[in-house]
Specification:
single chain; mainly beta; Immunoglobulin-like; 0% helix; DOMON-like domain-containing protein
């Protein structure tokens, strides 16, 4: 068995490596490499892929699949892949959590860690997870209705991160950028990637 080759449309994609927070010695980590890919498909929304490579998966705690998996809270207490999306110039942002169990969560914030009470996502992400040997792959498809409401072709600021739970229960914090001395995925300076929402090419509208 081998992990699937992602089927992606012919659209711009970004693939980047996540880094372990400097407070954790990299030599002690069971993770060899953690890559993330993002793109905006023509049908709208966004797709996020996370891939563990050359890793000792037996030294990690990976939540098992949950039948009929849906929305769940506190997924970040265990192995979980996270996406943060904001609009440039605005303080508000969305947080997405994706668990290997298939469960997911969406949170809305008006400012740094100021969660908007009563927010409920009107659209559910689709989460798929597979593993083989020293590799594991998670794909999360986020519908447009779950993203911040913006016109087509808008560039969104994105932060990609992951919580990785070791077999001993210790947590590792991975992200594209770590702007703070302590792990803080909510730090807006860590939203260093740009994702342009899908818009029909000129002449096809």
């Amino acid at each position: 068995m081998s992990l699937p080759t992602p089927e992606r449309p012919r659209v711009p994609t970004i693939t980047i490596g996540l880094r372990l927070h400097p407070a954790t010695p990299a030599a002690d980590s069971p993770v060899g490499m953690l890559l993330a890919t993002l793109y905006a498909p023509p049908e709208g929304g966004a797709v996020f892929e996370f891939r563990l490579e050359d890793s000792r998966l037996e030294a990690l705690r990976i939540p098992p699949a949950v039948a009929g998996a849906g929305e769940a809270d506190e997924l970040w207490k265990h192995t979980c892949f996270e996406v943060f999306v904001g609009v440039k110039g605005e303080q508000g942002y969305r947080e997405f959590n994706f668990s290997p169990s298939g469960q997911w969560a969406v949170y809305d914030f008006r400012a740094w860690r100021e969660r908007r009470a009563g927010y409920v996502s009107t659209a559910a992400p689709q989460v798929r997870f597979e593993r083989d040997g020293g590799e594991a792959w998670l794909e999360a498809r986020v519908p447009a209705a779950a993203l911040p409401a913006v016109p087509p072709g808008t560039e969104l600021e994105v932060g990609l991160a992951a919580v990785i739970e070791r077999a001993d229960g210790e947590l590792e914090y991975w992200a594209v950028s770590h702007p703070a001395a302590q792990p803080d995925f909510h730090a807006r300076d860590g939203f260093v990637l740009m994702l342009k929402t899908w818009a029909e090419p000129d002449g096809k509208r």
